[in-house]
Design brief:
By secondary structure, the chain is mostly beta strands. The protein has two domains: about 100 residues, Alpha-Beta Plaits (2-Layer Sandwich); about 100 residues, RlpA-like domain (Barwin-like endoglucanases, Beta Barrel), CATH 2.40.40. It has three helices and twelve strands, in the order E-E-E-E-E-E-H-E-E-E-H-E-E-H-E. The chain is elongated. The two termini are about 20 Å apart.
């Protein structure tokens, strides 16, 4: 296993661009929002409505309409993209609860689906390029941390960090790790002096809709 670790926080400026790809056909796993997210802001600025036919996708432009078909039972629903996610490996779309009910996946929680684009959102071009001004400083961290996500796409990383910032979550770091020559961006919070303090922070984050685990941090020299 090849692993190279770099920790950096949001603190010296550099400019990067991320190009979103559009999807005409995609298969993978679908999930749906938990009830606790009802009324909370989405990445588009709208508030999530569990009864609306909406969904989160990692790259499709906002307001794009897609047909989501449950491969297990053939049931389908058309939803409008208004959020970013899901960020768990293998998952390609996060549906509102109402949309999930339409394709009969409430009980199972997840389902294999096929996504087909019906209408591209007009507010964002087909191949948008987004520019982000980010502050980066290499840090040496010790103690304990909480890992919230492990992402491979830089665009997903930016949107996830933006979500954390909107929630007022501080002391966020990104660990760049190479595993079997594949690059991962690990979003972590740290470093805490004790495992108990880190566990308490994780419990508080879970109450706010985030998930993760506690780990021992190893600082790296610049």
């Amino acid at each position: 296993m090849l692993r190279h670790l770099i920790l950096f926080s949001a603190t010296i400026s550099f400019l990067l661009s991320v190009t979103s790809s559009t999807v005409t056909g995609q298969e993978g796993e679908a999930s749906y929002y938990a009830n606790k997210f009802h009324g909370k802001p989405t990445a588009s600025g709208e508030r999530y409505n569990m009864w609306a036919m909406t969904a989160a996708h990692r790259t499709l432009p906002f307001d794009t309409k897609v047909k989501v078909t449950n491969i297990d039972n053939g049931k389908s629903v058309v939803v409008r993209i208004n959020d970013r996610g899901p960020f768990k490996p293998g998952r390609i779309i996060d549906l509102s609860k109402a949309a999930a009910a339409e394709i009969d996946m409430i009980k199972s929680g997840t389902a294999p689906v096929r996504i087909e684009r019906v209408e591209l959102g007009e507010s964002i071009p087909d191949e948008p390029t987004e520019y982000f001004d980010i502050k980066v400083q290499r840090r040496r961290l010790k103690g304990y941390g909480v890992q919230l996500a492990s992402l491979q796409d830089l665009g997903n990383l930016i949107h996830y960090l933006d979500k954390l910032e909107a929630e007022g979550i501080a002391n966020v770091f990104v660990q760049i790790a190479y595993v079997k020559k594949e690059r991962f961006y690990r979003v972590v919070i740290g470093g805490f002096e004790s495992r108990e303090t880190a566990a308490n922070r994780l419990a508080e984050l879970k109450r706010r809709g985030f998930d993760g685990f506690v780990f021992t941090m190893v600082g790296t020299e610049p």
